[in-house]
Write a sequence for this structure.
């Protein structure tokens, strides 16, 4: 598992395996948002399982990430953060879809969208929130969320 801590409440990375869940639990992660299309979250059989939210999305300019999925993820993340938990967003490698979701979580917390993208790019070297098909989704989410 390759991940980066973006803020006190947000981590972005690659898809965790079931053996990574104990590490995430140690970090205070209470919600994993999976943005992959074909590989769902591993079920956590721990007596206090980490919640998972699978928002199936394709990493392709031909299939933009659904704004409704980004809203659902941001709302669920905010609930987890308000309850004192941390959030881990991911896709396959933590470059595009997981980054888009992470940026939306930051925007939902009050970040300016450009500042959110900049912070993620600074804290996660492989992140590319500026990809020509990712940036517009982040900006559209911000526009819808802030209305």
């Amino acid at each position: 598992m390759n991940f980066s801590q973006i803020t006190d409440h947000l981590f972005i990375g690659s898809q965790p395996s079931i053996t990574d869940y104990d590490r995430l639990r140690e970090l205070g992660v209470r919600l994993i948002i999976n943005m992959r299309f074909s590989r769902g979250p591993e079920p956590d059989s721990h007596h206090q399982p980490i919640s998972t939210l699978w928002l199936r999305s394709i990493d392709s300019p031909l299939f933009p990430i659904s704004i409704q999925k980004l809203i659902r993820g941001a709302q669920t993340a905010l609930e987890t953060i308000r309850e004192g938990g941390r959030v881990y967003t991911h896709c396959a490698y933590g470059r595009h879809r997981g980054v888009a979701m992470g940026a939306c979580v930051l925007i939902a917390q009050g970040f300016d969208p450009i500042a959110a993208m900049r912070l993620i790019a600074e804290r996660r070297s492989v992140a590319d929130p500026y990809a020509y098909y990712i940036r517009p989704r982040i900006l559209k989410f911000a526009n819808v969320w802030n209305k």
About this structure: The mean pLDDT is 96. The longest strand covers residues 29-34. The CA atoms of residues 49 and 97 lie 24 Å apart. Residues 67-82 form the longest helix (16 residues).
